[in-house]
Amino acid sequence: MAVVTLKDVRKVYAGGVEAVKGVSIDIPDGGFCVLVGPSGCGKSTLLRMVAGLETISSGEVAIGDRVVNDIEPAERDIAMVFQNYALYPHMSVYDNIAYGLRNRKTPKDEIDRRVQEAARILAIEPFLQRKPRALSGGQRQRVAMGRAIVRKPQVFLFDEPLSNLDAKLRVQMRVEIKKLQRALGVTSIYVTHDQVEAMTLSDKLVVMSGGQVEQVGTPTEVYRRP
Ligand code: ADP
Ligand code: ADP
């Protein structure tokens, strides 16, 4: 677990698009911060800079007391959950979840213990030997989350993880994500364009527009304003 600090972060893409224009946000240890705003306002770019998938043009991103601007994604102690699941189709659910731990040379019995624990928390134990294509959208999204929680990272990053699910499943997964984050207490940043999702999930809501922060507060504070 860790505090995440963004200080005057900017992103100018090659070609000159200024996607993020000086954003500063503090997320407390164990906090759930949602970045909400219309398509193109810079949410994904900001998240990808925290993840290390995009270079930072200026400013600072810190995880705990460590500035991570020039640190490789694999060294950042973060786990990211994507909209399109990003599962390996040829691997079983078990191997998908275990993949990151195997890469880190975690001992085999420790891997097994953690995969089984994640599968139990996410209720995907019956599917561990299946391939992703034999799962529903909701089950696949659970596997993607399993892959994130098994690493026991300091920070979770979510990029519109529920956008591809139908409305009923979105509501159900919203509740599950919140429960999971409360249980694990991992500092989280969650990107969405859905205001209901933003309101139900966040303790800290950041409303973005045109690459800048427009409002910050608890969901009640933000949505109560005229
Ligand atoms: P959001 O996640 O809020 O939809 P993005 O961060 O994806 O917003 O995009 C912010 C702006 O940056 C948009 O104008 C988008 O077209 C632009 N952009 C995003 N990725 C790139 C890229 N790789 N190269 C150039 N421009 C980009
Ligand atoms: P999202 O809405 O989730 O941000 P997009 O469909 O806008 O996704 O972008 C998908 C991919 O295309 C991302 O990797 C993004 O960085 C890239 N991208 C978006 N806008 C541009 C752009 N104007 N030029 C180059 N790449 C872009």
UniProtKB/TrEMBL annotation:
<protein>
    <submittedName>
        <fullName>Sn-glycerol-3-phosphate import ATP-binding protein UgpC</fullName>
    </submittedName>
</protein>
<feature type="domain" description="ABC transporter">
    <location>
        <begin position="4"/>
        <end position="226"/>
    </location>
</feature>
<dbReference type="GO" id="GO:0015794">
    <property type="term" value="P:glycerol-3-phosphate transmembrane transport"/>
</dbReference>
<dbReference type="GO" id="GO:0016887">
    <property type="term" value="F:ATP hydrolysis activity"/>
</dbReference>
<dbReference type="GO" id="GO:0055052">
    <property type="term" value="C:ATP-binding cassette (ABC) transporter complex, substrate-binding subunit-containing"/>
</dbReference>
<dbReference type="GO" id="GO:0008643">
    <property type="term" value="P:carbohydrate transport"/>
</dbReference>
<keyword id="KW-0067">ATP-binding</keyword>
<keyword id="KW-1278">Translocase</keyword>
<keyword id="KW-1003">Cell membrane</keyword>
<comment type="similarity">
    <text>Belongs to the ABC transporter superfamily.</text>
</comment>
<keyword id="KW-0472">Membrane</keyword>
<keyword id="KW-0547">Nucleotide-binding</keyword>
<dbReference type="GO" id="GO:0001407">
    <property type="term" value="P:glycerophosphodiester transmembrane transport"/>
</dbReference>
<keyword id="KW-0813">Transport</keyword>
<keyword id="KW-0762">Sugar transport</keyword>
<dbReference type="GO" id="GO:0005524">
    <property type="term" value="F:ATP binding"/>
</dbReference>
<dbReference type="GO" id="GO:0140359">
    <property type="term" value="F:ABC-type transporter activity"/>
</dbReference>
<keyword id="KW-0997">Cell inner membrane</keyword>
